[in-house]
Design brief:
The chain has 119 residues and is of the alpha+beta class. The chain has helices at residues 12-24, 30-36, 103-111; strands at 55-58, 64-72, 75-82, 87-93. The protein contains three helices and four strands; from the N terminus they run H-H-E-E-E-E-H. It has a four-stranded antiparallel sheet with strand order 1-2-3-4, sandwiched between helices.
């Protein structure tokens, strides 16, 4: 453990298990858990792109991804869930400044190919 705010030691498998647990059960009721994954808005109505602790994005094919990223000296992490399909993607690098760029979208496309109705 490095800091009180993060830096926990874990593995990709740990993150995937955490993601699957988020999809299967929650220590709070379903209504409250759903609110974690709802994009917040400012007082002026602007979308923040963030739920309660979760980044919320939509990929180019309209798939919703919920996740979190992190990094510090010695490592960076990407963690994403597509709740509609149950897909969980976790990646960990031992580089302080690794740029995941197109890796995550490419993996989503591999595991969730576009349906016939999508252009």
């Amino acid at each position: 453990y490095k800091w009180a705010s993060g830096g926990y030691i874990g593995t990709v498998e740990d993150l995937v298990r955490f993601g699957l647990a988020q999809l299967r059960s929650s220590p709070v009721n379903a209504t409250v858990h759903h609110e974690f994954w709802v994009q917040q808005v400012t007082n002026s109505g602007e979308a923040t792109g963030y739920g309660l602790g979760w980044k919320i994005v939509e990929d180019e094919n309209g798939r919703r991804l919920l996740g979190h990223t992190g990094g510090s000296v010695g490592g960076t992490t990407q963690f994403w869930i597509n709740p509609e399909s149950g897909l969980v993607i976790a990646m960990i690098s031992n580089l302080s400044d690794f740029k995941y760029g197109a890796v995550i979208p490419a993996l989503v496309t591999v595991f969730l190919p576009r349906s016939e109705g999508q252009e």
